Amino acid sequence: MQRMIENLKEAISEGGVIAFTGAGVSAESGIPTYRGKDGFWTKYDPSKYASIEYFNLDPSYYWSFFKDTRAPLIHDARPNPGHVALAEMEKAGYLDAVITQNIDGLHQAGGSKQVIELHGSTRRFYCVDCNKKYSLQEAEGALDVNLPPRCNKCEGIIRPDVVFFGEMLPPGLLEKAFTLAKSASVIITVGSTLIVYPASHVPAVAKQAGARLAIVNDEPTPLDDIADWTLYGNAGEILPQLI
Ligand code: APR
Ligand code: ZN
Question: Which atom of ligand 1 lies closest to the CA of 46?
Fold first, then answer.
């Protein structure tokens, strides 16, 4: 492992690095991952909580879950040494961007500037009718009154700025991620099962275009076979060693 880390550090020192992150990078901040024993999707049914069809049918289902389960987590979570290490790598000029599937905003909280949020963010909200924007604080304030929270301008339903199952990724963002992937020298994936399409295609595209692939995860992934480095363990312990 130590030799792999030294070798990866050398590759990073040449620049042109991007990171691709998933729920595992935030696990040490206290936010459960999606899959696995304590995962969100193991405890809650994503076809209800995370689908646009169900949100349109019964938005208060989403909002009551958000109020009781998700909002307190997001509110209390602080960036961990893994997030901070990626921010430091960017500040030092080696890392060009973090492409993330996470919706928790912790990369920005940790200091990262170039963050592509492929699945949106539960720190931003908007009215489905007039598009008025709301912050997490404003949305949380509205939760105390009624569910679902409604727009103070037009009474429309407020929704999170996230990509539900059944929705397209924000136009342009995936293309931007693929463009970065195609020109990267090194891509480091962190804390992702790498199974959710199309986001998970990003590391494969980078590799195909000539980047070297490093995988930081606490369990094997389907891309381990084509990876140049596989670092098994906690993101919050491994990433700081790359600085
Ligand atoms: N350090 C490193 N890896 C970790 C850690 C940790 N501290 N904790 C968990 N992991 C690993 C898990 O073992 C798992 O392989 O991180 C991975 C998390 O995988 P998922 O829960 O599937 O999360 P992710 O890959 O981000 O999911 C992708 O699925 O439902 C959707 O939209 C949701 O963005 C999400 C997408
Ligand atoms: Zn409105």
Answer: 30
